[in-house]
Amino acid sequence: MNKTTSFAMEHNTTLLYLICCFLHIIGGFFFFHYGFIYSAIYNFAAGIIYLFLLYILSNLPETFLLSFMIIEVLAYSILVSLETGNDAGTLLLDLNLASITFIVMRDTKRIKWYYYSISCLILAVICVILYIDFTKRPFAVTSFSKLNFSACLLSTTVIIMYIAGIAEAHIICDRQKQTARECRLNFMANHDSLTGILNRRELNRLLHEYEVLKSEKNIDYAFAIFDIDNFKQFNDSYGHDAGDFILKEMTKFISEHIPPGAYFARWGGEEFAILFTIQVESAPDILSFFRDTIGRERFTYNMIHELHITLTFGLSTSFTGKGLHEMLIAADDNLMYGKRNGRNCIVTGKNEIYRAGKK
Question: Which of 38, 41, 33, 44 is nearest to 83 (CA)?
């Protein structure tokens, strides 16, 4: 959406007021020229009122502004019909009011009753003007009628084009909002709310995709599960906010250094998982980098507490020919083995602990 359209949507009432003000000022001179004094005075007065309302526009509710414009245009149509004996094209302006009401008030909760009420009022005024057209003998103002009808027709055409543009802009805006809403919902469904990384549901979906690729195209993958050693101590010693802080800082570091083709997710609680889809053979070295680097880090909590964490990893790969279910069990068993044997390590197979590039 370009800036012009966005501006028109945001200031639609102001623009309508400017249009009405301009038309009334021009109309005042027009009616004065043809000797219709009451209509001329009305037009000049309406133009001045519109200018005053534009000056205090920000302090007035939109419903009042729209209602004033509608009533004013309807009153103008009746006055012109009574003084000249003919609507002289002002009915065309009245027909625009219902659509203007809908476009301007479409986002409010009162649109239904308000729109119906205004539509009934417009219909009643149109019936009155038609009655005047068919019963009151018009003055010999043929040239006036033609010119005024032409002016009303031109104004109506401009307003219809304006309304159509605003309506299209609203439709585009609604579609963009819907798309953005769907993206937000999709992100919320597939990501962890605390850390912002993938959640277990989405990683499971990816794991099943790669299980199919393994069976169909023999594309290998690796799965690692890990958690923070003695994580409960942080919650017990410093509170749950400290635990959340550690989780976010750790996931931030790994997210920034995760290699292409790897998916990082929160598995549950303080447990996390990584799916490696390329460089599968390098998975132990990548995990070793995470373990070593994070083990040297000091995370400052509340500007006073220096927190230190270590990680224990369990890794399994599709090289063994195991299916996905067996791989997940193997990774979890490897993690448990690492926990029972000193923590702060990477277990790549049964009883195989990988440290600093060596098993």
Answer: 38
**Exposure on the CB side of residue 324, measured as CA atoms within 13 A:** 14
Three-state helix/strand/coil letters over 99-164: HHHHHHHCCCCCHHHHHHHHHHHHHHHHHHHHHHHHHCCCCCCHHHHHHHHHHHHHHHHHHHHHHH
β-pair partners for 221: none
pTM above 0.90, yes or no: no
Q: What is the distance between the alpha carbons of residues 125 and 131, in angstroms, rounded to a whole number?
A: 10
pLDDT in tens, 27-47: 889 888 888 899 899 999 999
In 256-338, the DSSP E strands lie at 262-268, 271-276, 299-301, 305-307, 311-317
Tell whether the model's pLDDT for residue 137 goes beyond 60.
no
* DSSP line for 21-68: HHHHHHHHHHHHHTT-HHHHHHHHHHHHHHHHHHHTGGGS-HHHHHHH
Question: Using alpha carbons only, how large is the chain's radius of gyration in Å?
Answer: 36
What backbone phi and psi angles, to 5 degrees, belong to 105?
Answer: -100, 10
Residue type, 73: V
Backbone angles phi, psi at 301, to 5 degrees: -105, 130
Can you read off the two tokens belonging to residue 134? Answer: 């068919």
286-331 per-position pLDDT tens digit: 999 999 999 999 998 887 888 999 999 999 999 888 899 999 999 9
With a CB cutoff of 8 Å and minimum separation 6, the contacts of 263 are 198, 203, 206, 274, 275, 277
- How far is it, in rounded angstroms, from Cα 155 to Cα 149? 10
Structure tokens at 150: 């032409």
Quick count: other Cβ atoms within 10 Å of Cβ 98? Answer: 16
Cβ-in-10-Å burial (0-12, 13-18, 19+) of 52 comes to exposed
